[in-house]
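ARCHIVE CARD
CATEGORY: sequence design from structure
SOURCE FIELD: tokenized fold
FIELD CONTENT:
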């Protein structure tokens, strides 16, 4: 499932349980646009992983809290605990390895 996050409260609720992949992106970012269909594919192939999209220009407080300096940045959470971070584009195989 792929969900766009609009505020910090919504973000904190969503990451609290299960495996959640967060994509920090911007609408003007080329690599972010390239990553979007790969995330859609992951959402279809691995429905047990929730995927959140956070526009760093719209929800800047969360981006600042996690020190997002480059985009796209992906952060993997398990039950609210940050597990791993990756910056830049990844293909589907790299993305699947990242979330396991």
């Amino acid at each position: 499932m792929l969900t766009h996050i609009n505020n910090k409260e919504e973000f904190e609720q969503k990451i609290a349980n299960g495996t959640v992949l967060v994509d920090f992106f911007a609408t003007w970012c080329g690599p972010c646009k390239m990553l979007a269909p790969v995330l859609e594919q992951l959402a279809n192939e691995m429905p047990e992983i929730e995927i959140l999209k956070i526009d760093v220009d719209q929800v800047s407080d969360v981006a600042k809290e996690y020190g997002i300096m480059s985009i796209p940045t992906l952060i993997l959470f398990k039950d609210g605990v940050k597990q791993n971070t990756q910056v830049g584009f990844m293909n589907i195989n790299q993305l699947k390895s990242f979330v396991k």
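CARD ANNOTATION: The longest strand covers residues 19-25. Strands lie at 2-4, 19-25, 50-55, 73-78, 81-87.
SHELF: design records, drawer C
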